[in-house]
Amino acid sequence: MEPTTTQPAPMTPTLPRTSGGGCSACGTIREQYDEYSSRRRIPSDICDHLPELFQWTRGWPPAEDGSNTNVIELGVRSGNSTSAFLAALELDGRGTLWSVDIAKPDVPPHWHDLDYWQFLQADALGARARSWLPQQCRVLFVDLDPHSYAQTLEACQVYVPRVQYGGVALFHDTDPAHSSDVARALDEYCRVTTGVEWHNRPGNHGLGIMRVR
């Protein structure tokens, strides 16, 4: 059974954080970590799962070709999930978040100036997004309206193969796990695909955790 939160590379130390949201080893305040910490305290449909998104993004070692961590996020909306990914990448000091949303996201304008966030306004399942997003990632996050069975299954078929071995795909809106359209799509994808399995984190509409190995 997977632990509730774990660093993907447990040998990579997590530095203790200062009260201001930075890390005590570097002695500087981390703006994105502070933003993420603030959003964790504000009730939302995903606030309880933000620490899981944050932890899954931390600690990935560079790939054999020297490339850094890629995180793919399908669905941004108000940027709650985005804040967790950006905070993790900021603290690690490497990696890029690639986000797609069909609508303009309601996020702080200066986020668009971050060199480790790339955003595309497009249909996440359309040809433009498919060609723009990286072909490999360590973490995939899917939170697409209207959370239908067909849409989720297509997202799995298109993007889960891009998750590198040992990586993870995260899906919002999997509650109730026995009947939600998202959960049914994950069940079907895992049934016909080798090397993947998923389980549900209840609460806040559910978070599906799909390991790729």
TL;DR?
With 213 residues, this protein is of the alpha/beta class. It is built from six helices and seven strands. The chain has one domain: Rossmann fold (3-Layer(aba) Sandwich).
The main β sheet shows up as: 7 strands, mixed
- Series of H and E elements: HHEHEEHEHEHEE
Span between termini: 14 Å
Beta content comes to: 15-25%
SS summary, helix count:
6
Q: Tell me roughly what share of residues is in helical segments.
A: 25-40%
Strand order of the largest sheet: 3-2-1-4-5-7-6
How many individual β-strands? 7
Describe the structure.
The chain has 213 residues and is α/β, with parallel strands linked by helices. The chain has one domain: Vaccinia Virus protein VP39 (Rossmann fold). It is 28% helix and 21% strand. A 7-stranded mixed sheet has the order 3-2-1-4-5-7-6, with helices on both faces. Helix 1 runs antiparallel to helix 3, helix 2 runs parallel beside helix 3 and helix 5 packs across helix 6. The longest helix is centred in the middle third of the chain and has 13 residues. The N terminus is likely disordered.
